[in-house]
């Protein structure tokens, strides 16, 4: 993990990655429409878009906001290269005015401003806190199943922000300062077949002294462990013992092997105990084991029982602090079940289901035009859900007397902010025509001006800073919004003024989208 | 789309993107194990790994192989920078031998060889051909929902290889030569509110001549269309008409608006017909419409009926070739249902469900050690499915007398290849102990040596070359393996010799992973 000294260099590295998104990485229709706007002389008209999502993911009660740094660095560095423009010339229709391409070459974001909530805020995007169970540490290990290289980096960064403790992704560790962790692959174990392959064969005790024949020491312990547990040494896989021996000699202070390459109870656990007892005899502290298949709960109980028995028999208090890491296609559901059952798992590694969000692989964010030249715009649709809320807005979070968020209120930005202690009336979304009165104990404005006329105007947060905000943000949220099963809906409401604007535009009696009264 | 002349430059561009995966983008345990191997002097031992997957995705009958170019370019350019090595020094345990880091600085892939099937082969990875229905063209438009920038590029490239015709992703067009397409966003429509915003207001006829007042022309057509269809001009949205007018003036040869921003039947379709008829009068060929909400089948039938009626009434044969593009959260299932129902959709745009693979967001590929120093290695497991097949292998595809693949046969590479017309016995996977006899009419070796001692030894294929191979590969496959519902299982079998090796190692009487007989 990067030290504090290296944090500035790392922040620079993190930014260099985030800013390399090329401006051509967008849908073609952005260019066809850009030309149509430009051709009509409308490219200098001020317009407001807003980004939102319609439902919390996974049937949950809240979301965490992240991704702002990526956007801001993209915007600040936005420019088309000559090659980009030539490519666009080749794909846009023949006859497209050449002056448009000259315009693109000069285009930057100096006229763009963005307001947003800070990264790590609870907003009712990608949530992983829900994986957290009692006490345990969580490790993200999904790189191999992510969508390409950036997909893997994205997953590592945002799961860390969301509450994971560790990642297996070495580049994410370097770029984002996320603590990295890793144990042993099954292939390491199966690459050994005999004790003859162990080299070097000696280990110097932790406190110093001459090198000890480590193979001989471990063989002695294996006999005693088998006797204690009533196991047969003849069922122990020689290759597995050789692999653990070799790894312990390389990493005497970091011994955490995977013990299910053959059979946990007949071979893996016995080999671990023998090697770990030998390490303890030489004053090293073994770390623990990883289980990667089968019934993790049942096995973890058995492993813990054996650890305790070893301590009782051989007086090795180090065995009381051994950790058990569980990894085996862990999903949100299987982790919830695991948390319900008795088990002794200290660290859970989650991969595929986390980085690919199996239950809901996309959030469904929408980005809609809401104002042009100061006038509100609204999209209506035959799917009522696809209609949008018109006008430039402010969003306030109303807190109750316990300091807990009770409602997010969406107002037109021209409205005065709600005041603490003053009652107001509003229309909760989803409950048409139901007017509600609420008196907030505290009011927070959710959106900050983060990008103003082409410049980043809000300090970019590192992954760990956003992670900290996420933790704080989640702490204030009432537990009934956070639970996995049937979370309470959090109220999002429209101000009376915004509600009236929607009604007016829908009826066609606003300048927002009038009907063609005569032709 | 890139022209043939630009294809070499584009290939260079494509490679520059594929080769930029940094070597640190891997799981930490690869480095911890690398050190343990190195410490034990085993880093120069020859070993073989193989990559496979256990089940075809989406309950289907086959898969398409792709991604080889990415791997080969990564391998050929594999090298650690000094900064990479310093980072690794900071995360590996203190006391790790400094000579290991010197070793890493010199490390390359000059001793690595890879054999693989060519990209685009049917292998029983990510399948999108299944989206294809009768006649229609398919457009990928999932960039906004993909996992980060690379996720989006990856999706565009591999859906094209898998059979899609078009992408909305402009950068994918430039990098990979995929034909790009795009229409119009709802925000373009809602950005207009009145005909006063249309500028310029004139259009020069296709055949030349003086500029015509296009607004006036369209208004005239709108009246006639409303009369023909019995619709009220008073329900037409002025902003929608203004948007279509403005777009048509910018793109008279590429008019394909989205017609459901307000109401298809009361406004969008009428505006389209009026503008399209005016374009036809000026000898332009409008392209068609896009539907983005509601019941796409029903609406497409209505739209087609109106097109035909316009032609009948106004004698515009151009209206017979208008296309209807359908986009609205299309999934594999909804497309299958759409294909069953009567509809008039010519192009289907698929986004979220395609790039995030909602039904199964990961394939579950596994990468396992199978040979060390010429000796087979096998991982056994308490989950029988997690056991691996030992030894370096060859894979042959056996074809029947119709030239259709009937079985893939996995042999040890030391075995002689099966011969056409000669019967052989084998053990189909999934049917333990069932010996089967088969006489292939033709035999193809599936794996090619694509990377030999650090050099790419097989010409890298462009996206379009791999796409072509995929089409050919799919054509030979029997339809009963390709259907969506309950596809026939394709037979994959082990040679007798490989089957014996598995039995021997499982019983512990092979040198693969012997038991510890004495301690």
Automatic annotation (TrEMBL), chains A, B:
GO terms for molecular function: nicotinate phosphoribosyltransferase activity; transferase activity. SUPFAM superfamilies: Nicotinate/Quinolinate PRTase C-terminal domain-like, Nicotinate/Quinolinate PRTase N-terminal domain-like. The keyword Transcription does not apply. It comes from the Eukaryota. Transiently phosphorylated on a His residue during the reaction cycle. Phosphorylation strongly increases the affinity for substrates and increases the rate of nicotinate D-ribonucleotide production. Dephosphorylation regenerates the low-affinity form of the enzyme, leading to product release. Pathway: Cofactor biosynthesis; NAD(+) biosynthesis; nicotinate D-ribonucleotide from nicotinate: step 1/1. Residues 392-501 form the Nicotinate phosphoribosyltransferase C-terminal domain. GO terms for cellular component: cytosol. Keywords: Ligase, Phosphoprotein, Pyridine nucleotide biosynthesis, Transferase. It catalyses: 5-phospho-alpha-D-ribose 1-diphosphate + nicotinate + ATP + H2O = nicotinate beta-D-ribonucleotide + ADP + phosphate + diphosphate. Pfam families: NAPRTase_C, NAPRTase_N. Signal peptide: none annotated. GO terms for biological process: NAD+ biosynthetic process via the salvage pathway. Residues 24-126 form the Nicotinate phosphoribosyltransferase N-terminal domain. NCBIfam families: NAPRTase_put. Belongs to the NAPRTase family. Catalyzes the first step in the biosynthesis of NAD from nicotinic acid, the ATP-dependent synthesis of beta-nicotinate D-ribonucleotide from nicotinate and 5-phospho-D-ribose 1-phosphate. Helps prevent cellular oxidative stress via its role in NAD biosynthesis. PANTHER family: NICOTINATE PHOSPHORIBOSYLTRANSFERASE. This is Nicotinate phosphoribosyltransferase.
């Amino acid at each position: 993990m990067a030290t504090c000294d290296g944090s500035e260099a790392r922040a620079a590295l993190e930014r260099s990655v985030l800013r390399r998104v090329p401006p051509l990485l967008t849908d073609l229709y952005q260019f066809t429409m850009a030309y149509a706007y430009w051709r009509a002389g409308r490219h200098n008209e001020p317009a407001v878009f807003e980004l939102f999502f319609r439902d919390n993911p996974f049937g949950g009660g809240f979301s965490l906001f992240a991704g702002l740094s990526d956007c801001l660095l993209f915007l600040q560095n936005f420019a088309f290269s000559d090659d980009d423009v030539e490519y666009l010339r080749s794909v846009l229709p023949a006859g497209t005015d050449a002056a448009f391409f000259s315009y693109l070459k000069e285009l930057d974001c100096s006229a763009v401003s963005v307001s947003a909530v800070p990264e790590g805020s609870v907003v009712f995007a990608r949530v992983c806190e829900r994986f957290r169970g009692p006490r345990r540490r969580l490790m993200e290990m999904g790189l191999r199943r992510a969508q390409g290289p950036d997909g893997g980096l994205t997953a590592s960064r945002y799961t860390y922000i969301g509450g994971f403790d560790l990642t297996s992704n070495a580049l994410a560790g370097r770029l984002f300062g996320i603590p990295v962790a890793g144990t042993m692959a099954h292939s390491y174990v199966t690459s050994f077949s005999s004790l003859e392959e162990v080299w070097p064969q000696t280990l110097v005790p932790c406190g110093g002294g001459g090198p000890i024949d480590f193979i001989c020491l471990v063989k002695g312990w294996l006999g005693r462990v088998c006797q204690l547990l009533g196991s047969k040494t003849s069922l122990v896989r020689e290759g597995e013992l050789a692999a653990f021996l070799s790894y312990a000699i390389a990493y005497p202070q970091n011994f955490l092997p995977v013990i299910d390459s053959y059979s946990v109870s007949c071979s893996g656990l016995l080999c671990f105990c023998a090697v770990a007892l030998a390490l303890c005899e030489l004053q090293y502290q073994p770390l623990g084991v990883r289980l990667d298949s089968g019934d993790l709960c049942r096995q973890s109980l058995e492993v813990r029982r054996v650890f305790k028995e070893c301590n009782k028999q051989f007086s090795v208090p180090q065995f009381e602090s051994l950790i058990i890491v569980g990894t085996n296609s862990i999903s949100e559901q299987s982790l919830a079940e695991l948390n319900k059952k008795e088990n002794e798992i200290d660290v859970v590694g989650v991969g595929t289901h986390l980085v690919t969000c199996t239950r809901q692989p996309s959030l469904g964010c929408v980005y809609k035009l809401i104002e042009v030249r100061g006038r509100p715009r609204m999209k209506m649709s035959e799917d009522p859900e696809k209609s949008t809320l018109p006008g430039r807005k402010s969003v306030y979070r109303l807190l109750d007397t316990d300091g807990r968020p009770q409602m997010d209120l969406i107002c037109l930005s021209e409205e005065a902010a709600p005041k603490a202690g003053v009652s107001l009336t509003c229309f909760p979304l989803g409950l048409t025509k139901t007017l509600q009165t609420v008196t907030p104990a505290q009011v927070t404005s959710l959106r900050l001006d983060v990008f103003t006329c082409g410049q980043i105007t809000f300090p970019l947060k590192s992954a760990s800073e956003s992670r900290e905000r996420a933790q704080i943000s989640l702490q204030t949220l009432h537990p009934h919004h956070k639970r996995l099963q049937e979370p309470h809906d959090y109220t999002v409401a429209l101000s009376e003024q915004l509600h009236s604007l929607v009604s007016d535009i829908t009826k066609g009696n606003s300048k927002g989208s009038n009907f063609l009264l005569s032709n």
